[in-house]
Amino acid sequence: xxxxxxxxxxxxxxxxxxxxxxxxxxxxxxxxxxxxxxxxxxxxxxxxxxxxxxxxxxxxxxxxxxxxxxxxxxxxxxxxxxxxxxxxxxxxxxxxxxxxxxxxxxxxxxxxxxxxxxxxxxxxxxxxxxxxxxxxxxxxxxxxxxxxxxxxxxxxxxxxxxxxxxxxxxxxxxxxxxxxxxxxxxxxxxxxxxxxxxxxxxxxxxxxxxxxxxxxxxxxxxxxxxxxxxxxxxxxxxxxxxxxxxxxxxxxxxxxxxxxxxxxxxxxxxxxxxxxxxxxxxxxxxxxxxxxxxxxxxx
Length: 299
Description:
This protein has 299 residues and is α/β, with parallel strands linked by helices. It has one domain (7-298): NAD(P)-binding Rossmann-like Domain (Rossmann fold, 3-Layer(aba) Sandwich), CATH 3.40.50.720. 40% of the residues lie in helices and 10% in strands. It has helices at 7-18, 50-59, 74-88, 116-141, 167-187, 205-211, 234-245, 260-267, 279-288; strands at 22-27, 63-68, 93-96, 148-152, 193-198, 257-259. The strands form two sheets. A four-stranded parallel β-sheet has the order 3-4-5-6, with helices on both faces. Strands 1-2 form a two-stranded parallel sheet. Helix 1 (7-18) runs parallel beside helix 2 (50-59), helix 3 runs parallel beside helix 4 (116-141) and helix 7 crosses helix 8 (260-267). The radius of gyration is 18 Å and the shape is globular.
């Protein structure tokens, strides 16, 4: 699980642990990083670490193995692949969720006015890290038929036909969709499956911090951002990837652009509050389409 310190990637790692998987948890934030585990967020929440994610995986019923890895450094990713090879000799599922670029986004800023360093950093985080990981890790996945690759992104192929408000962000979040499509073609002869996957409006730790709320009182943020009413917990996309991994007929999705809400309806699972939020349907119909209805019609 590449980039599993927090958010959707952490939830996916835990969900795979619940299914009994051994999960290699990677990321840059470790308890050994000069007290990283002791720092607090703006709302007093301890900074997440890869070790904490690994412990959650193990507590859920799997085996979590934390490996500090900067996925922008080819040698570190090469070392990760060697460790997986030495430990298990193969890899069945690769989920590439490396990101960390939300704080770099300057929405509604023209390409010639945006901070260029921030923009280029977003491309490195959202594109280069994924491609470096594919290059070094996919040789493990093709050793046995049935391997699964999940490229995490923001938005489906259909939804992203609408401009995302920042050129660098738009590019960074569309490339994984095309990358999954290309990898799907390359995996066919090995019996593998590749998809891109997106959550809806995610109640990640970073988003909760942004609004100054917690998972327990997240609805208080709706007063600041009405569309947050459609938000989903990270657990939903965790369940989505676990359901896909457990589907013996998952090859039918090969090359597809999928969302957690879509798979919740296909595989009949629900979010932590018992709902099946359809974020992209909500935005398509009510926000952009100006149709009559309420958010409850999409939960």
